[in-house]
Amino acid sequence: MVHYILKNNGVSMITRFRIFIGFLCLLLSVQLMAAERNYELRVQNITKNITGVDVTHALAINGSIPAPTLRFKLGDEAVIKVINETNEPTTLHWHGLLVPWKQDGPQFANTLIIEPGKTHTFRFPIIHTGTYWYHSHTELQEQRGLYGAIVIEEDTPKYQVDHDYVFVMSDWTNEKPLQVLANLKKDGDYYKYKKDFLPSILGAIRQGAIWDYIKGEWTRMGPMDLSDVGYDAFLINGQIKSMLKNVKHGEKIRFRVINASASTYFYFNIGNLREFKVVSKDGVDVQPVKVNELLIGVAETYDVIFEMPHQMKMFEAKATAQDITGSASLMFGMGDMEMVPMKMKPTPYGMGDMDHGGGHGDDDGPGDGDDDGPGDGDDDGPGDGDDDGPGDGHDHMDMKRDVENKMEDELMMFGGDDDHQMPMPKTKRLNYKMLKSETPTDFDKNLIRAQVIELELSGDMERYNWYINGKPFSEDKYINIRENEVITFKFVNKTMMHHPMHLHGHFFRVLMGQGKFAPKFHTVDVAPMKTVTIEFHANEPGIWFLHCHNLYHMKMGMARLVKYEGIQQTPDLMKDEAKWGPQMTHDDDAFWRGEASLYSNTAKLEFGMNAGRYQFDMELEVDEYDIDNFEAEVMFKRYINRFLSVGAGAVVEDQKVYAVLTAAYNLPGNVEMEGYIRHDGKAVVRLTKILPITERINLDLTPEFSFKDDFKWSFDSELYYNYNERVSFGVNYRRDEDGDDSVGFGIKIKF
């Protein structure tokens, strides 16, 4: 219209001038609305000491862990210059932000690697508000410190608060993350001693859960597990303990809570189960709901508002690891301290009432947030935050100096000894079913609805492989979809672990009975043995990552690329992947393990290589330390699924070498059955069962049966005490095919 008027010769000069001025003002206003917001982020190697140990492999952005908070306004143009000052490649992903496909960040999928010494500039418009975060999407760098918050503010805040505080939770290990992964590949339960999470038969009996234990063994699911890694610390904004000063009674605080951990779910509580108001999930506003606890999955964000009571109070805001192996605390306010009650240590013997369900999933259960009871946060009473009591009207500023000194003294004490805290009563925990969008989120009925895509989440904890629909990422990379259709994913969790599933480039509706007010997330917790259904409008053509945000699960296979029809990887990305891909860690990489057993009656050396579906095992044994009794097995296997493997190899018996075909199957009851047939016709079947009698004492039973000209059997057993994850002491009893018995004492060492 403007273009037409300017070309019309019948318009007066004054009118033309006014139109010209108006056009300039329009351009200026557009430019102001789309103001550039520039950041320069330098990725650096640093030495970080959090637990008294210098960690020289840490990574930081601008010298900081977590990285600096990036703040934007709606309508800004983000211009982020990333300078890689390390000697390794890196990338950054803007978690939850809707950005153009090529600005998203993951290596090879849509963004070029930022090579050592090189710079890459991301540029994208800010088209929505909320709380988000950013992190490396290369290797395991996120675990080493490459993560930070993103806050996109509204021009006119919906909620008036006195303090707006970013609350970034994370986990910290002094080990190199690649070593952590190698340990998990040796044994998925490698960190059970560090976490003091040791299921046993006697423990199940003591807790009245023996039938749950037996059921877990019979179904081959094993015990419940809330975490893989034994961490050295948990952090809030990079610190184990910290303080937020100058918060007065009666004021409101907005906590922008971000779970930026690599693999830890956190409980979030304030004081003695004080209520707070949840106003946003994953950056999207929801109808406010009052609760007193959040269970926050990896990569989720929540905005909560807490109103300080009209009392002189100091409160602890606490992030507690879901497996109750540690926590981090932030203190705020002034006055007498109110701490978060201690949580009970979870049980590994079933879903029960020990917080395993996580409050999310497809069914109601304990802790689902719907039940009213003592401590549920609904009852008004002493300490509920709403009542005025002695001291409410005092002007605490007159005592500011004394109170701040007390805060410093108390900070040295709080959270240091959970044994002195009262156990936590039943909480009113947020459940996804409690969340409703502020406005309808249902899609246009004229949109085509694609077939429901079921995504089964499964894994092999012993060999530490993780699958979607029975395959790791290396075997099945793509989920193909069409533009402008409504896509439905049905996540079916077949494991005993939580999986936080994140879809890049989209928000999706979580279908849990809220109808047209279904909330929109970018990350959803799929709890153990639960099903969660999501749907989204396929309106962002590209190739987008979908993955479990447990960093180690993603790395070992639980990931896919959601690929729009007609979209192809660009030549520059293909070239980049060909150059850098072989240097990255893959789910089919080989990880080795070894074990040496030195008993007075026998010596054995075992060596194995785990490479995705492929396994190499070698066992060398000398009975009675007589070289004439030397035996060996060398096997190459391919796992068809978690339970079945087949392969070939060779055995040495009676100083002869035999070629063999082998197969192994995990029977109900977690009994490992392995057999082979030699080229001379002899068949051998071996059964192995490990019985954890107590937390530290195991009994291994291994009967073996052979068939050729006649039937023979032998028996091997070990009763041993696990000193730690690497060293055991015990006794060995053996009976050979000729009926000779022997007993020996010794040591086992894993390496």
What does this structure look like?
- There is one protein chain.
- Mean pLDDT is 87; it is low at 1-17, 23-32, 351-358 and 363-420.
- The strands form seven sheets. A twelve-stranded antiparallel beta barrel has the order 33-34-35-36-37-38-39-40-41-42-43-44. Strands 21, 22, 23, 25, 27, 28 and 30 form a seven-stranded mixed sheet that branches. It has a six-stranded mixed sheet with strand order 10-9-12-17-14-15, with no helix packed on it.
- The longest helix is centred in the N-terminal third of the chain and has 21 residues, at 13-33.
- The chain contains ten helices and 44 strands.
- It is mainly beta and 751 residues long.
- It starts with a helix and ends with a strand.
User: Which residues sit in consecutive blocks of at least 5 with pLDDT less than 50?
Assistant: 1-17, 23-32, 351-358, 363-420
* Alpha carbon gyration radius: 30 Å
Q: So how many helices? A: 10
Q: Give the helix proportion (percent range).
A: 10-25%
Overall SS class: mainly beta
Strand content: 35-45%
Question: Short description, anyone?
Answer:
Helix content is 11%, strand content 42%. By secondary structure, it is mainly β. Mean pLDDT is 87; it is low at 1-17, 23-32, 351-358 and 363-420.
Give the topology, please.
Blueprint: H1 2-6, H2 13-33, E1 36-49, E2 54-61, E3 67-73, E4 77-84, E5 92-95, E6 119-125, E7 130-136, H3 141-144, E8 147-153, E9 163-172, H4 177-186, H5 192-195, H6 201-206, H7 210-218, E10 233-236, E11 241-244, E12 252-259, E13 266-270, E14 276-281, E15 284-291, E16 294-296, E17 301-307, E18 313-321, E19 327-333, E20 336-338, H8 400-411, E21 448-449, E22 453-460, E23 465-468, E24 478-481, E25 485-493, E26 499-503, E27 508-510, E28 520-521, E29 523-526, E30 531-537, E31 543-548, H9 551-555, E32 559-564, H10 571-580, E33 590-599, E34 602-611, E35 614-623, E36 630-639, E37 644-653, E38 656-667, E39 671-678, E40 683-692, E41 697-707, E42 711-722, E43 727-735, E44 741-750
Parallel strand pairs: 1-4, 3-8, 9-12, 11-19, 18-20, 21-25, 22-25, 24-32
Antiparallel strand pairs: 1-2, 4-6, 5-7, 7-8, 9-10, 12-17, 13-16, 13-18, 14-15, 14-17, 18-19, 22-23, 25-30, 26-29, 26-31, 27-28, 27-30, 31-32, 33-34, 33-44, 34-35, 35-36, 36-37, 37-38, 38-39, 39-40, 40-41, 41-42, 42-43, 43-44
